[in-house]
Amino acid sequence: MKQYALDTHLVHTDRLVNSPEDGAVHTPTSNSVLFEFEDVADLEAVFQGKKAGHVYSRSSSGSAVALQNLLNELEGGVAATVFSTGMAAISATFFSLLRAGDHIVVSQFLFGNTRSFMQALEGFGIEISFVDISDADSVEKAMKENTKLVFCETIANPVTQVAAMYEIGDICERKNVLLIVDNTMTPFVMFNSKAVKSSLVITSLTKYIAGHGSVLGGVVVDTGLYNWENYSNISEKYKVPDSNLWGMTQIRKRGLRDMGATLAPSSAHAISVGLETLKLRMQKSCENAMAIAQYMQSSDEFKRVHYPGLNVHPHHTRAADIFGGQFGAILSFELADGLDFRAYLNKLNLVINATHLGDTRTLALPVSTTIFYENGLTQRQQMGISENLIRLSVGIEDTNDLLADFKAAFS
Ligand SMILES: *Cc1c(COP(=O)(O)O)cnc(C)c1O
């Protein structure tokens, strides 16, 4: 597959990697929960991991494995596991790999539900240092003897802080610490997590990858860069012959089989269809986001715009360096003093007031009263979230139609 450009891969990988029967170009959806074996010795061998196959679809199914193969190939990994949602991928990974008494270093700028999940982890005896991941020194300084992993997002939602990805990757490599990156905001078509030495890449498939607001999913990919022989929490049971697969084996057994947040076969199919147009959609959404950010930046009706594509953004140069000339499709803004954001949002016609992001449609959402409400004022301030901040997830509509909608809502 390597001889083709990414655009080509995206539309041909399913056919070429999974070789579906009957000349089908999509892997057919398989809905069987159970699997029959003519020879019971084969059933035993699959159970024991000595032979490939499926025994029960909570653990694996043809549809889930086909999507895993695609995402693993496209991300350049050694193994991948799909889950029912992005949060399932995150929680299963952390619960599989951590034990009470471990310490982890985590970005202080996180997706709201991930931030809230971290509080649950603390309840299980895991010590967390929350740090400003736009400053690599603060990541290094937070590390301790018992630090098991570092976790960050690439571009934070909603204030768009950009992680010092190259520097953090170097620090983790030097210190032999697992680096887990949530790459939902900048999926592999715009950011190569492996190039910054990520060990595991987690992506919510619900967002850009599926793209059409009709299906939930998540994935964790192992890039093969981390040496699991250095990770003290791998159970003897999961030390398979290839040590590259130790981490993923433990995630699959504990995180998927035992916790049970399995991706449905029909969802796997819908996600793989969405994936085919990911690059085109991402390009258009990024272009639209840049145009909207520039308009807002130059207009007196807006007090503040956060978008890494603007050269006034504090991490603009870094973003230009690591995201291949694109800057993502999330931006956030505050209206000028005296303007009521609720009245403004209610007057938008095309732009939809809704949570979610990475959709084909442009979505607007006040954040302090919704997705970051439960986090409280102190955490919001730590994340740089002001009380009147509006988040936009920019879609693939015509640029001028979007600009006209934002302008007309003032009249
Ligand atoms: C949405 C999102 C998630 C969670 O994904 P779901 O599929 O909604 O569970 C995790 N991380 C980031 C950065 C997200 O935007």
UniProtKB/TrEMBL annotation:
It comes from the Bacteria. InterPro entries: Cys/Met-Metab_PyrdxlP-dep_enz, OAc-hSer/O-AcSer_sulfhydrylase, PyrdxlP-dep_Trfase, PyrdxlP-dep_Trfase_major, PyrdxlP-dep_Trfase_small. Pfam families: Cys_Met_Meta_PP. GO terms for biological process: cysteine biosynthetic process from serine; L-homocysteine biosynthetic process; transsulfuration. Coiled coil: none annotated. Keywords: Pyridoxal phosphate, Transferase. The keyword Transferase applies. The keyword Transferase applies. Gene3D superfamilies: Aspartate Aminotransferase, domain 1, Type I PLP-dependent aspartate aminotransferase-like (Major domain). Signal peptide: none annotated. The modification N6-(pyridoxal phosphate)lysine is found at K207. Its cofactor is pyridoxal 5'-phosphate. GO terms for molecular function: cysteine synthase activity; O-acetylhomoserine aminocarboxypropyltransferase activity; pyridoxal phosphate binding. One of its GO terms (cellular component) is cytoplasm. Belongs to the trans-sulfuration enzymes family. This is O-acetylhomoserine (Thiol)-lyase.
